[in-house]
């Protein structure tokens, strides 16, 4: 299959990986794992302490990515192995996700260990997935294609999460003894979903043309990484964007990872929290598609800034919520902001970097994003313990969104014109 039809097949196959791995982001990182971590694996700990432990687990996974992502990206560029390295991280991570179902109650350390390694695989695979964007569509389609991928991710993650919630609420329909059994079984479903919908990318998305042997790729990757670090100051729009991204994606990532645990700490019921996350997912689907189109028209930077302003409103309101209906509304607002900020950040960055070094530069992109998660969730948990009230954690995010927005505005407007 060639021409426009062939390109559509490649784009769909690439975007379906977002559909695949978003099950992990939704069910594990944002949904059921935080609830089970607090109520099942750390039932004897206080909510604040459980949140702190979850924050440190997220931070540890992020630290590993900080250390390995740039080199992995450079090696993948030299070897022409972006897709192969994606699969090498994603498939073991899916297996570790399924293994969470076997962790007994009150074994929080083991649950955290599996979660950390699965999260490392999830984040590392995303590095190579993002880098493949520059080779599957022309530059004038990057905003739309990136938004399409995130849109499918929200829809796919929302659907599998919906199925898991139904199982938790009605475990007897599925031959399960309890809601806890259903929640644990959801990790097996998530791992299988991740593997199944990764297959189109494995078979249909081409690798970059360049290919060198493994040892040469490693040594060449090291040289390329050293060269980029030495000359990064030349790429002012790139490093300025990365600093902005470091700040605002910290707030975005912390919201994703800690929102359910935060709501649980406020005393909201599990059903309320699961419904709120579903709202985020299904609102995020059209929002990501819409923001991709908006990015084509008004420029990615303006779209990102709009999303960050909305996040400031979310953080302030979230610090004072009292009722479940407020949590539902905030969840919808997060869905609107989150999809647009993530999709437009990826495509905006793709337009700033050399296409032949996309893996390496997306390594830095992921390092800045994941190193932000290194401080965000632990800070979120620590403030709740320090002040004895988790509501202070939400207000701490405002500075991250505002600081990122201010840096983003300093980038030369010529780098932000619609393509």
From TrEMBL:
Residues covered by the Major facilitator superfamily (MFS) profile domain: 1-416
InterPro entries: Atg22-like, ATG22/LtaA_families, MFS_dom, MFS_trans_sf, Sugar_transporter_CS
Pfam family, one: ATG22
Subcellular location: Endomembrane system
Bilayer-crossing regions: 12-36, 56-77, 84-103, 109-136, 148-170, 182-203, 238-261, 273-291, 303-321, 327-349, 361-386, 392-411
Keywords recorded for this protein, A-Z: Membrane, Transmembrane, Transmembrane helix, Transport
GO function terms (MF aspect): transmembrane transporter activity
Tree of life domain: Bacteria
UniProt keyword annotation of Transport present: yes
SUPFAM superfamilies from the UniProt entry: MFS general substrate transporter
A Gene Ontology cellular-component term: endomembrane system
Key word Magnesium present: no
Gene3D superfamilies: MFS general substrate transporter like domains
Name assigned to this protein: UMF1 family MFS transporter
